[in-house]
Design a protein that fits this description.
Blueprint (H helix, E strand, L loop, with lengths): L1 E7 L3 E8 L4 E2 L4 E4 L6 H14 L6 E5 L3 E2 L2 E2 L14 H9 L3 E5 H12 L8 E7 L3 E7 L2 E3 L8 E2 L2 E2 H5 L1 H6 L4 H19 L3 E5 L6 H4 L8 E4 L6 H9 L5
Parallel strand pairs: 1-5, 5-8, 9-14, 14-15
Antiparallel strand pairs: 1-2, 2-3, 2-4, 6-7, 9-10, 10-11, 12-13
The structure holds beta-D-glucopyranose (BGC).
Length: 245
């Protein structure tokens, strides 16, 4: 089955049709810069433009960087506050004319990694952490997702972890890889103490430079890097877009 996967981010909205049995993207991804201000109506129009680009009239799955419960976006750490309690699914369906399911962006990446990437065939507790502007988490037990874990916002030294250990924090504080790697280690160790994962997968753009920070990580769990890098968001969104019976 082919589903249009769309990954909504703070700077860009990217999409591509995906074969959800193989995880293959069926064409080049298409990207439009995120509109500013990124209010629900404006983002919905951009989502519709992406669907139009692919001449799409089938099911769509969207990954969104906030808590998503049954099509309603509930939080707004790095997005416009108008998303809190917005009925995003209804809005996107109205703009695209297609069936749309929405999922948290880290959960989307986690679904993709579990089915086609580094988490393939992994039972037990698997934790995926996506490191970007925000810190997203996705938690699986025996392959089943517990959605909206939001463990990027646990408190470390009286701070929201995301403000200290995200890639945005590394850039903002102009940290060396060593300094940031140690911060990341503190964060991941705190997560270990909470959920005791067997296996940790690190994703997000920065995971491409893993050789720079992996030497500073000292954890109990086995740890690896996501395989589909920044395509996991699109592929996982497509997986979540499968219409429910
Ligand atoms: C949000 C999460 C999201 C993560 C990555 C965090 O700020 O609270 O919902 O998954 O950023 O985008």
């Amino acid at each position: 089955m082919d589903i249009l996967g769309i990954d909504i981010g703070g700077t860009g909205i990217k999409g591509a049709p995906v074969n959800i049995e193989t995880g293959e993207m069926l064409s080049e991804r298409f990207r439009i810069p995120t509109p500013h201000p990124a209010k629900p109506q404006a983002v919905a129009k951009t989502v519709a433009e992406i669907a139009k680009h692919f001449d799409w009239n089938g099911p769509i799955g969207c990954g969104f960087p906030a808590v998503v419960q049954h099509g309603i976006t509930r939080s707004a750490a790095n997005v416009h506050k108008k998303w809190i309690n917005a009925d995003a699914a209804t809005l996107f369906r109205a703009e695209t004319g297609c069936p749309v399911n929405i999922i948290n962006d880290a959960d989307a990446a986690g679904l993709a990694e579990m089915k086609f990437g580094a988490g393939r065939g992994r039972d037990g507790v698997v934790l995926l952490v996506t490191i970007g502007t925000g810190l997203g988490t996705s938690l699986f037990t025996d392959g089943v997702l517990l959605p909206n874990t939001e463990l990027g916002h646990i408190e470390i030294d009286c701070n929201d972890a995301e403000l200290k250990a995200s890639n945005a924090a590394r850039k903002r504080d102009d940290l060396s890889w060593k300094k940031w790697g140690k911060r990341l280690n503190t964060y991941l160790s705190s997560l270990e103490a909470l959920v005791w994962p067997d296996f940790i997968i690190l994703g997000g753009g920065v995971s491409k430079k893993s050789e720079k920070f992996m030497p500073y990580l000292d954890l109990n769990a086995e740890i690896t890097i996501a395989e589909s890098f920044n395509h996991a968001g699109i592929i996982g969104a497509a997986l979540a877009g499968k219409p429910r019976k």
